[in-house]
User: What shape does this take?
Amino acid sequence: MDSMPVNWDALDSLVLDFAQSERLLDDSPSSDSHQSRLLIRQIRRCVEDGDIDCAIDLLRLHVPAILDDHRILFRLQKQRFIELLRRGTVKDRDSAMKCLRVALAPCALDAYPEAYEEFKHVLLALIYDKDDKTSPVTNEWSERRRFDLAGILSSILRAQLHAYDPLLMMTLRYLMSIHKVFCTHQDIPSPISDITERFLFEDRDPPISSHESLYEVPPFEEVDIQALVHAAGLTRQDAVDSLRFAKGDLFQAFQNELCRMKLNALMLDELVREYCVYRGIVESTTPSSSDCTSQRKQCITNGSSNGEVSDSTVNKEGVQESNADVVSSQNNDVEMRSADETAGAHGDCSTSDMTHQVKYHRRLRRSRNHATGQRRRKRWRGRIERSEVTPDVDSTSSILQEFTSLVHSNRDMPGEEQVSESNSTFDNVNDIEDHKYEIILEMMELANKGMVAEVVEEVNALDPEFFVQNPILLFQLKQVEFQKLVNAGNHAMALRVASSHLGPLASKNESLLKTLKETLLALLKPNEDVMTKGLSLLATSLQVAMSRRFGIEEPQLMKIMRATLHTHNEWFKLQMWKDRFEEFLKINILKELDAPLPIDSTSKTQADNETHGSSSQVTSSSSKITDYGSSPTQVASNESVFDENAILKVMEFVALPRSDAIHLLMQYNGNAEAVIQQMFA
Assistant: This one.
């Protein structure tokens, strides 16, 4: 799984879009969608905290049309009645009685057919105590009702305001859910199970149930229903209800279902920041040595050193809003992987091997003087939202005022507090680490520009043993240099590069001989376009290898994407179906690689050499990323043998995955009726 090639430029784009959409960068513009998501989070938090008055006031102020729907208003007023009784004071009990007469009873008359029966049932809360576990209204007293109502209200508001989560959030939800299903189905261990278990929760917001008759024939194509069933893990009836709510729009229904999945949003922020620092998208700030001890204690206190969030922190959809300086102080040890990780087992603030570090320091300064210039990077802003815990207030007016000012505020957080200087030894270590990290990014930038000769020269000056340990990477860089010389018409120098470098490297690795022959064909037919292809993948391979050499750990988001994209391929091979949603979620672009023609046959080998820490028990199939039509055990033509309607009919009536339906049809010569009759006999 870890050897799956990925279009990192495409992931960069998704990550940057997420960071800007959530206003995590200092120059992120405010948008209506972001403000709407803030509003939804605030209303959700009010309902979860039992402050229904606050939620209704926010709805009346910002989305009054929602309250025109008496189905929603009835559920809100019913929960408000319960919360007023829960407080237990005489004043609140009087308010609950007023709520019954003025608000709840009128709504119950025309909300929906079952509403009046629900109204009569909730009246029992007047005589049964909330602590009575045997009462007939135990469910009405349950605080779980708050979270269910908050989830349903969030889904309605999300669709009403078109305030869906950024694409990265939905793509990760989808890929991780498929990854979990695939690993369970194939009974293989997941190399990212420790991440997925903490990141994507099993709990979901409740579906929005339909009030139409269940006996009505749904006015939707069965292929759409089945696509939603298997993509979102729904029952058929839930998929039909979801399509009804989306007025038949399959992709809107799909978005609604993805956003129902709960994830650890704070952990996602950390993953994104770690990735952005690694890729040079945002500024890197190495923590000072004086913070090392406190950070280590903080990680121990939090129970994790890589962004794990306690249950109490994420029990409300995993969303914790925090200001920038809190995030910085508590998570630097996790997010700033460019800090001193030279020997992970030796601790974050190790001073061992200082002489070796100083030797690198001189090389790094020399290389920086030859660099093409550091590209401008953005500053991480962090979430600037009110605290997760709502302060106690006497009225909702202060919350409304606070939220309204928050939505329209464009102020940045104050800069991070400056820490006092530590001793010179640790300052030197931090300075070295900053230089090491910068030079890796500069080498990646040079490689992206095709300046591979300069890359090889600078890396050799920095670490003469680097290419000894990474010969295939050197071969790829020299291939690009050879092609560049051929395109410039300098055949003599190109042949010198081939004889001095490509030939000796290929003689030591027989798998490179075929690639060498293909490379030499460029002498007969130069190709200018080949210079622009695959440089990004090559530059990322260089970055990963150099970072590993210098003790800078690869970001977890990279590991997630490699593993989940691999299982996405394998899952749809098993299903013998093309994913209808991969283009919508940009998964197809994440798999598209513009590899230079002479490097095609070495790309996977290089990726395999970069793999580290993966499970040897994980089975891996071909690395091709465009073949979706065939199963590993069946020929690609199997699917076309049977009529599509027959496949869908078996999937519908027997509630089977597509691949199982096809296998059954194979046993009965494609006769769907025979399959169904046999299954129900």
